[in-house]
Amino acid sequence: MLLQPDHVYMAAAKAWIWTPPILVETAAAGAVCLFTERFAAELNSLSKERMYEVIKGFWPTADLVFESFDEQSYASFLKYLENELSHLRNHQQHFAVQNLEGTFNVIHRLQKNLSKAQAEALRALSGGFLNAEPATIQRSIELSVRLWLTLNINSSAIAVGPTFPDETPLDWDHDMSLEALAQRQFTKCWAR
Fold first, then answer.
1. Strand partners, 12
2. For residue 14, which of 58, 80, 94, 191 sits 20 to 30 Å off, Cα-Cα?
3. In the prediction, which pLDDT does 190 show?
4. Whole domain around residue 38: which residue ranges?
């Protein structure tokens, strides 16, 4: 798996927006599937450069500078990624997105549609998936959000994989925006 050597920056509204590098697929390797043990192993052995790219992929607007980037600060997040994905290892066929770059693409598109209802966001993202069932796209969107925001969004109507007694998954209603869902969840936390 090789990264393109140059980061792509785009000028927009007099601000520079970081866009994550795209994986260059090789005939031998290709992009590593999120749901494999190989992906988990690679997460545990990331170079500082690749870890920085992964973190910037999840949070492109974060004020991170490579020279002062501390890998240990993100070790627990990488462990979270590994843990969440390991629960789904036997269910990869139920997801439209299969690799990290696809996850970043979903996240970046969702960031532009935070105030849209889930059904609208699903329609907006569906155009990027050929021959994928709506449920597989929705699962991929929810998994991307779960990894990005560490909110346990896992709508019961489309859930796959194990559920644990100490976890309360959030159902993302079709008429609710991601922004409203997150606000509702944190309002509940503050009200306790």
1. 15
2. 58
3. 57
4. 2-191
**In angstroms, rounded to a whole number, what is the distance separating the alpha carbons of residues 91 and 30?**
20
Contact 1, 31 (CB under 8 A): yes
Q: Pick from 174, 175, 105, 167: which is nearest to 140 by CA?
A: 105
The whole model's pTM is what?
0.78
> For the residues 90-109, what does the mean pLDDT come to?
94
What letter does residue 73 receive in the DSSP assignment?
Answer: G
Name the E strands within the chain: 2-3, 8-12, 15-19, 23-24
- Which residue's entry shows tokens 């991929």? 140
Residues of the chain above pLDDT 70, percent? 81
Q: Token pair for residue 192?
A: 């306790």
| Interatomic CA distance for residues 64 and 52, integer angstroms | 8
Q: What is the domain count for the chain?
A: 1
